[in-house]
TrEMBL record:
Pfam families: OEP. Residues 84-103 are annotated as: Disordered. This is Transporter. InterPro entries: OMP_efflux, TolC-like. It is found in: Cell outer membrane. Belongs to the outer membrane factor (OMF) (TC 1.B.17) family. Its main location: membrane. GO terms for molecular function: efflux transmembrane transporter activity; porin activity. Residues 125-177, 257-284 form a coiled coil. Keywords: Cell outer membrane, Coiled coil, Membrane, Signal, Transmembrane, Transmembrane beta strand, Transport. Residues 1-22 form the signal peptide.
Amino acid sequence: MLRRFCLLLLCSLLGFAPAAHAQTPDAEPVALRTVLQEALRNNPDVESAENNVTIAERNASVGNAGFLPELSVQARYNETISNTDQQFQGQAPESISGARSTNSGADAELSWRVFDGLGGRFATLNRLQAERDAEQQRARATTEQLLTDAALAYYAVVRAQRQRSVLEETVAVSEERVRIAELRNEVGSASDLEVRQARVDLNADRSALLRQEAALESAKAELNRVRGRRTTATDFTVAEEITIDETLTTNAVRTALQQANPVLQQAQAALRAAEQERRTLRAERFPALDASLGYGVNRTESESGFVQESTNYDFTYGLSLQIPLFTGFDRRRQRQNAQVRIRNAELAVSDTENELFAALTQAVAEYQRRLEVVALETDNLQMARDNVEVALEQFRLGDISSIELREVQEQAVRAESDLVSARFQAKQAELTLRELSGTTQSTLLSP
């Protein structure tokens, strides 16, 4: 009996005892990649951001920038009813009532701006492309934030699930301890105090397990929300362990931040758009030359007058030169405002860089500290497990009581729980660095 209890306690605290909620072979755990894909597919903010990108991409076209010619076609038809009194020389007067006359025709015109003032259209196209880039980076920022939140929600379930397993194993050991204490009490080798203490410890473990199960259900509900699932079902499992990338370095993250951070890229794109807007306004100070080409058909029919019907075929072409001389200082106002917008965009870039690099410094320090804590907690857990083995041997020999053994058991459980929490916090620090460097999506969803 004693040997069975010792074996159960040793196996549970060394991580070999099966959990009461262990998954069945056909219940595959939900993978992180699946969660992230569902979050991206079902999140309305991501869809809205992608729609804005689509609009910006359509706007960034040569046609919208004014490079392509414009073709227009016009058709017309007019009918007039007239009462006419006519008198020709040497003839008697003539009156015509209800005389109808019609005029119909069609015209086609092709116009194209040949010169627009030293690159105005190119500046417009560059501005539209910069605005498109800004929308793309804004969508990336939304995606990166969502993926970080979804990954944290996923690993929160992993943490809660692992801590529940630890408590389930603790309850199993405490139940066996109560059973042994009761049997020993019956044969007179254990006191009533020892039995009551074993029951108190069991109830405490069961209470802790119930609280942890509630925490696990809450974490799963939050994960369902992030996944975009409108369901109360939480009968799923996730991965057993939290994996941490310990290879991130300050220089690598700093370089990635400068090159790929979507918030910084968005601010830089906004600056480029403001600069191109100023170029467009400068081009408007110069003359603009338009070329046009047209063809028209006009037909007239009349029941009165000398000409009964007439058909004209017209071919026209020409050039139009516009020279801006004075616009009520409006262009001057626009150029001054454009210069202010450029300055604001420069300030936004500088402020964004300061905030990001400060956040990077803090995140790197947090990441390194959390890795050190994980290493310490790992060593602490190993020492706690070693203590369990020694305590079990002493308990078997009768050198310590079950209450002293309980203390060793609690230390091992706390060490296990602390390690799980430490790994979660280290993963949180890693994901923060990923988001700052703009590599969350490429890392978590890489093939």
